[in-house]
Structure formats: C-alpha cells, structure tokens
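Before relying on records like the one below, remember that each one covers exactly one chain. Contacts with other chains, cofactors or solvent are not represented anywhere in the record.
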Amino acid sequence: MSVSAPVKLTIKDYKSELHNDWCPGCIAPDSRIITRSGSTLIVDVEDGDEVLGHDGAYHRVTEVMSHWHDAPIQRVTVQFLGEIVLTDDHLVWCAAVIDGRRVMDWRPAGELRPGDLLAYPTAALARQQRAAESVGAGLAARVAIPESADEEYVLLGVEGNERIDYSGFVHNLEVEDVHSYVTEVGALHNCGDFGILTGIQMALAKLQLDPDKVACFSGIGCSGKTPHYINAYGFHTLHGRVLPVATGGRLANTGITVIALGGDGDGYGIGAGYFVNTGRRNLDFTYLVHNNNVYGLTKGQASPTLSKGKQTKSMPEQAIQDGINPIAMAVAAGYTFIARAYALEPKYTADIIARAIQHKGSALVDVLQTCPTYNDLYTKEWYEGADLAEKKSRLYKLEERGYDGKVQDPTDVQEIVAKKAAAVARSYEREPIPLGVYYEAALPTYEDEIYKRIPAMKDTPLAEMDTFKRDVQPLLEAMR
C-alpha cells in the first residue's frame, strides 16, 4: 500500500526532529577525524565527506549527528596517540592474542582496561604523519610506529580509562558501507540499525510516499526506537506485540502505508504466534525484522535465529537449541512477499523494502545485521569472508544467479507449490547466504475479504466513518 506525496521529497524529509539524538556511541566535539583531506574536527565533518574506515579505505559520510549529553563519559588514553573522550557504549576496534592467535573485536569504551590493545590502521598513522603540519608539530613525534606494526594495523596499549563528568554536545558519524571511522586515537564503529533506518528512509523517498500517509509500528528491542526517527506516524508497542497492533492500525485506516518493525527475538520469539497468524491473514503491510542472532537490548543472549552449538562472546556456554529458519517459517505461514537483505548494504536494502511496500499483501523482509557489541561471530568481516583462504563474500543476490521467486499465475496451485519449495530450499543455503526476493505471489488480501462484508470500507477507511451515528437496529434484530 502506498500513497504518493504531492511534491518531490528527499530522504531528509523522512527524518524526524529526533533523528540526530540517536547516537549509539558519540565522541567529544574536539575529536579529530582522519579524512581524505587531512585531520578534521568532527564538528567540521559534513555529509559527503570521505573519512578513513577501520578497514584502511576511505568511505563517504552519509549522516552527521549530535546531541546534548549530560552524563558521565569516558576519557581513554592510548599509547603514543593521546586521549579521546567518548560515551561508554561507543565501540572501539581492539585486538587480543588468544592461544597465540590475534583476534580482532569491537569493544565498548567503558569496558577498556589499561593494558588492552587497540588495533589502529597503519594507513591512519601514515596519513597523520603526512598531515602533521595541519594537525600540530608534536603529532609526528607522538606517532613513532612501534615494532607491533603490520600491513594493516599497529597495536597500541590502553594506558588509562577514566570516567569523568560531562555536560555538552557529543557527535557521531554514519559512514557508508563500513560503518566505522578513524579518529586520531582509535577506530570507532556504529550499530547496524543505522543501515536499516537509512534503508527505510531511502525506500520512502524512492516511492515518494506522503509522510502523513505512513505509519511505523515497532516492538521492544534495539529496533524499537526506529519509528522515533522517521518523519511519519509512529507507535512504539509492547514486546512481541507489534504485529497485532500494526494489524489494528491497518484495518482502522486502510488509506495509509503500514510498516511494522521488530528484532529477531521480538518477532520470532515472544511474537512467534503473531508472526504465523499475520502471514496467513495476508494483510497489506510490510514487516521488517532486524536479525542479528542476539537479544541486543538485554546484553546479548541467544535469539531464536542463533544456530545450535554457536557461542557469542556474551554467552557463557554454547546454544543448545536449533535456530529457526525465518524464511521457511514465513513460507509456511502464508506471507505473499518474502525477502532477505543485509543492513550494511543500505541501497540494496532500500530497493527490497520499496518492493515490499509496493506489494499488495503481507510482506516480510528479514534483514541480516551485525551487532558489534555482543555478536562476535557474524561480523562485517565474517560476512565479507575475510577469514577465508580466498576472501569472498558470504552473501549473494538471488537475481544475479537467475533465481525468480515470483509466481506468474496465482491460480496455478502447482506453480505456487513449486515456488514455495524453491524458496525453502534456498533458505537453507548457509555459505553463501542468498539475499533478495525468495517468494512473491499476488493473492487476495485480508482487506479484500473485509470489503466483501463491509463494502463502504473500500472507499472510506473505518477511521473516517461516523460510527457513532450509524443505525445498529439491524444488528440488534439479527441477534434476537
């Protein structure tokens, strides 16, 4: 369901006034960022600038954020490089040596201890030395590269981590593709929720939907605040209950585009019953699931999608239950549009979301995302296949291999069965993991059946009807 806007809109028109308050980790305004043009104060970085990512390459800034922070904050001192002031939840690129093997990991600033090692891109050190005059003459002296330097990173020790009082603005960046940026003191990361939020806003802009005709509903979890940052109607509901509430919203006003959002725990765990029944109704709205295999809001317990035998850094023991298959569940439940995207590819995610919104019927988009705070198994590097002998992505796009999940003749039961079987088969592929549209069918919706019973609703949404002055006598007579 979509209602076009009367004027040309851009992605900024779908960002709420609260959008810039969403910083899962922020830094002080005097922090300097390594950009392609040199070392720049974060307050001077703008959308479109190119900054160095933790991967040693330059990436475009897609969002500049800031908000007032009136709470304690961390002051981390790093060997040779100096200090950085940042919120305790900001993720820092670190390294450790375990059983003689170097392990790279994102760790919250508040957890850093003296002696811990930061992994700092050698490209950033070289860039700082070339820009020494603009940054300060003392910088080159401070950055004498230790013997621990290798092709990609130099390991620098944490010398101190002090918690200090703070009252002032803090800042953050959203960076295309890599979702990280390098300061003069450390490489920092953002959460995968940003990619999904950006994907939603890009999809709304692509479809030119009137913000006044869009309603976003969410459950509880890291995904729950998404409606707060979208310039549209929003409803933050209860844990696992987003789908029945979104169902009510859609039926009350069939003139709006409804988007429901939740996490893999919220939707496939406590909300699993609603997930199944929403699919079989085939109501015309889109359900986006942030799937990162953990309960991120409650400190990283295994979610229903984590496979048996897996153990993230936040778990004391391995998972002893099998993980569910959301795509196969959606096929069995009756969703008529089923797709999968990847949060760190926001443009592709936006295209998938746009198709889901345009689809007439219940649409599920399962979005794979990283959780750098708690899930050290399925990281950006893992999805990129950085650990493989021959580096190659662990993701591929279905359409690039000739797969077509769309049912051409919805009256042909055999074709429907064949397409569903193909979708389920693809959903069990583990490496590489398929992205794209698994299944699509144009079948009668729940609203179509409602209109047969209440024809007036087809032209006038229930929310616009004068239900207080209607004649209920025929109903009373029927109940005698």
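The longest helix spans residues 193-207.
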